[in-house]
Amino acid sequence: MNEQFEIIEDRDDIPSNPTNNPRVADLINARLTRRGFFKGLMATSAVAGAGIVTTGMARAQDASTLTFKSIPQKIAKSHTVADGYDANILIRHGDKVVADAPAYVPGAVDAAAQVKQFGYNNDFIGYLPLPAGSNNSDHGLLCINHEYTNAELMWPSLKDPMGASKEQAQHEIAAHGHSVLEIKKTDGKWQVVDGSQYARRISALETEMVITGPAAGHDRLKTSTDQTGTRVIGTLNNCAGGKTPWGTILIAEENFNGYFGGDIAKTNEERNYKRLGIEPDSWYSWVNHFDRFNVEKEPNEPNKFGWMVELDPYDPSSTPKKRTALGRFKHEGATVFLNKDNSVVAYSGDDQRFDYLYKFIASKKYNPNDRAANMDILEDGTLHVAKFNDDGTVNWMPIIHGEGPLTAENGFDSRADVLIETRRAADLLGATKMDRPEDVEPNPVNGKVYVMLTNNSKRKEPNIANPRVKNIHGHVLELTPPGGMGKDADHTASTFEWDIFLLGGNPANTDDKSVYHPGAESWVSCPDNLAIDHKGRLWIATDGAPKSDIPDGMHATDVEGAGRALTKFFFACPEGAEMCGPEFTPDGKTLFVAVQHPADGSTYDAPSTRWPDFADGVPPRPSVLAITKQDGGEIAG
Ligand code: FEO
Ligand code: CA
Ligand code: CA
Ligand code: CA
């Protein structure tokens, strides 16, 4: 979700962590001077013997393996991609998804049409080849989240989304969720397959889901429309996500709190809802029109959100499942590493200032020869939360009911209670408060894990892994499991090592205390989404850079060798937009990106850009683009 404007920033992310977990400010300098921090950077003579914090922008292009030339970091009405590449619109908000979807009509209020059309604010993108299990890079399914809506950009004369009518609210609910598209590359150009049997819209309006795993059926999940505590209509605020080795998609429920309103003191869930930021005033008008969003009328409904949802996109009739074993918080996403012993490990960030980094280890192992046997792997396992130590290690602390403080004495009567209130359980375990963990991804090439920490302007006390106060530009951590590189890395281990990979900010501004390779060609503000190409290089998408007068977009960097932390800028979003969903095809020749909330901060009547149509009367539309190299080669060689 965008944080370009302070009012949204505050609403989106009021810190709700009341605990006083580790503060180790005095050890930070020791950590920053560790030799490991400059591992890789030392390979260039420019930094050898130089100071700790690099503020120069010395040229060192030869150090990078990325073959494109950086583009300027300049805000503009349209998008820009590096020379030699094409960025073509694949699908826009309102375009047809299912076979009988009507054509998009600008400004129409029509939930029945929207529920068949491409939703709003595209975020996570997952590419799954067709046929299933193949490596086909020219034909596949594209699975895309729709995180939230900007009512003020969807309809005329509506400055405040809270003023949306019941019909508009229904349309917004239909515009949330997920889309599954079948796509095909013909003569070098990607197109959506019209009338595909796989095409599907998942929405918060009508898609029935089941709640599975250890919390399913608990009294705290029962509502007036579901006495079983196992059913729910839809999914909300679907931010990032992930893919599993068995060909399913993981859809994260992030800022679900904002859809609910009413007095939480009138429920039995006050402590739980307070920790998740549910407030009397909702962010949307829905609470005025539908009882399910009013906690005074439907007090347990919020407990049905904040989970990870698993979807089998190869089966268009499949019922999505909310996997409670992965915990309940503001899930940014969940990304899976398959250990060489076939253990399944999923990483997840809780995107809020001062919240935590999690790792889930499934109880059951992956069976490469039996897809059906894998379909319920995420049903059971152990969730862990990260505690960063000053000696360069990070402990993964298991969150287990009945162990340590997670007992009835502290209000945890069952395993379900621990999962429903994951944040409070992690508080009691003493997890490290982070600067808003967004995408967290294991790198299959070097076996390490990269953690995007987007920013935390409210930080007053640094800690070892979040070393800057008022961290407005964010940073990237690198975690190293034991066992070796790549597939040898043991992601089930309870202790990893960690390093700071880069500290965002403008190297020309010494106050930023940024750290990159001295030859960095771009500077990063607010790292959010991440993709890793098949050479193991990071593609970092940003959300929030415009407050520094640079556009959001896509940076890329090597992680190993002379180009480590040498960032280059590949794609710039149009004005007001953030960059989401980077996803490569297996051959590395296509990079899909999602441009979310173009023209954010303006209105339908006077949009700051009409990207991508640039036609009178047509509002800006969130869209997915396919980026290919004009010579047909791999992205960035
Ligand atoms: Fe929806 Fe954490 O960005
Ligand atoms: Ca974000
Ligand atoms: Ca995000
Ligand atoms: Ca990602």
From TrEMBL:
Residues 1-20 are annotated as: Disordered. Residues 1-12 have a biased composition (Acidic residues). It holds the Pfam family PhoX. Signal peptide: none annotated. It comes from Thalassospira alkalitolerans. Transmembrane segments: none annotated. This is dTDP-glucose 4,6-dehydratase.
